[in-house]
Amino acid sequence: MRIFAALYLVALALLLIGTFGLFGQERDPLSGVFLIPLGLPWVLWLDGVADSLKPWLAVFAPLLNIVILGTVCRVMSPPRRNMQ
After folding, report:
1. pTM > 0.85
2. SS in 3 state form for 18-72?
3. d(CA 25, CA 11)
4. HSE-CB of 63 using CA atoms within 13 angstroms
């Protein structure tokens, strides 16, 4: 889950750098492409959403996957023992 979260932060940083042309980079309309695979399958369900909301939902879709992975990891992990 930590690796997925790190990949999300890197993809989000690349989106911000490419969108706003930070650090002397040229503006790139495809800078958010790395968020798409991280947000699957939720990104595929955005067809019926208004076009103005799609970029925002695509940015936050990986967060839903992080929450789901975190919940599954907590539920499936064995209980911790108190070591004293």
Report:
1. no
2. HHHCHHHCCCCCCCCCCHHHHCCCHHHHCCCCCCCCHHHHHHHHHHHHHHHHHHH
3. 15
4. 6
C-alpha 34/C-alpha 12 separation (Å) is 8
* Cis status of the peptide bond prior to 41, with omega within 30 of 0: yes
> What CA–CA distance (Å, rounded) separates 43 from 65?
11
Task: Identify the residue whose tokens are 């911000």.
Answer: 16
Alpha-carbon gap, residue 73 to 32, rounded angstroms:
28
Token couple for 32: 């958010």
pLDDT in tens, 48-73: 899 899 888 989 999 999 999 999 99
